User: What shape does this take?
Amino acid sequence: MLFLLVQDTLSSSSFTTLRALERCLVDAVCETGVDLNRCLSQDHYQGMLTFVGGLGLRKAHSLRLSIRRRLGSIQGRRELLEGKLVGKVVFTNASGFLRITDDTPDRERGLDPLDDTRIHPECYISNDFAPKICADALEVMHNAEVYVTTVLRIMENSKNELELILKDDFSWAEKYLLRHEVKELGDKLSELELEDYANDLELLGKGKRLQQLLQIKDEIRFPWLDFRTPLTEMSAEELFVCLTGETDSSLHVGLRVSCKVVEIREKSVNVLVDGGTLRGFAKIGNLSDDFVENVSAVVQMNEVKQGVILRVIKDQGRVEVSFKRSHVSTGEDWWFANRNIDEGMMEWWASAKRGELDPYFDEVKALTIYTDSRAEISSRTDMSLSRGEGAYVGGPRRSTGGVKQRVRTSQHLAFKNCTFKEAEKELTGKGAGEVLFRPSSKGGLSLTWAFQESMFKHFDIIEVGRKENDQNMAVGDQLRIKGAEKETYSSFDEIMARFIDPMNEHVTRMTEYRSFKPGLPEDVEACLKENKAKRPESIPYFIRFDMKMPGYFVLTWYVEESTTHPFKKEYVAVVPEVKR
Assistant: This one.
């Protein structure tokens, strides 16, 4: 799932995302607190206990089992420490987020009301800061026997005053939370001089406590008030990104896409875009440049056709596409240049909040460069095709096994008519993870993957249903990677998303692993011997590359007891699903 527009640029993005989500859950749980007794009685609620600061999965599970087995329920936070259910450090870290509620009528159980607040036990068990504030506000002596009654009286007083002030100004609480200048709540607590109390505590060696006392005052007034921004309904744009994973950068008007026909109607067809779950449709008038009377005459079920996006309809979670040759052959520069004329482009431009271009940006020159570049690519393709079926790529040459390499046609940016040597040269200097699709010397298609800089792995691509002597130069509709025929792909983009990207992520994780060691085999072996000398009881190991085996990592370890071959190694292949 996509949470950030730049998420895919992060190394090990899925791991990073999970850690970020875990931190968000911890923050949310600590903001709202967890009813500990409810965790004991309701299994579906116990998961929140895991995200209490200071606990975690193992400690939360142990705490829950211990309370159930020994006590059945908890009557106060004090029992956690006195009953040795948690240690002192865990108690200090977690107790302020654990709520002990008294939900009986008129609070018949007589539980400590401060156990159901954010106030830490340090302020009313270890010290008497909170009880003394309540007693001073009511102008009574602080007495342990009437402690609960005193706290409940001051809480009730603040509640009544809050109800009165909200009748006059319903937005008072929101303004107060935002620290705006508002009328002071006319309760007993407002009469206290907490600055003087804080100064007295500092003179007694209790430290600087003013900020803590102010927070205690607010928590007595508004116990467990939720400070989070109220949840609002997602906009159509936000919902579209969450459901499709597509953003304004990845999906826009004028983008060429492959479309699989999944339903034929009287005046339109429904499609799946780029072999994924994004839905789309094409009206009968956009199926062909010629007049179409019968939809079934120009498209068939499960047919994969190349189209171009006319509209991105975010509130419906789908796109409108066109199969017209005049639309598909039009470059993205035309759509950009006509953003103030074409209706679909105007709608997308406004939805994407693109706004006006920088006044110093030379739009005409940029469009000219883009157009000239497209024209050059098209011209090279046309010249290659004019040589006929047996034409060589890039001039006369002999390919592997004496087989002529045939020219193929594709508008994909990662496709090039070249040999495997030329593909490696093209990818050199572009970094690890880049790919290039090309014709194969065996008559089909191939994929060259930059495993690392100057390390390239080549994959043969099987075009399902294509005959050996097929004269059609276009790329087939169903593609499979030789050696991994279980998966079928509908386009080059799908191969990159489902085959190449996972392998790139695996490679990144391996190279970031603490035991990965770049360098020559002899250098790695020298480090292994050095580590063995430092820790004789261990079996040191490293993971490295083998320049002769692109697409593989080498697990190398050192066994001193083996006199003939002390350095052992195992090759680990990188594949999309798992590393083996």
Remarks:
- Residues 363-386 form the longest helix (24 residues).
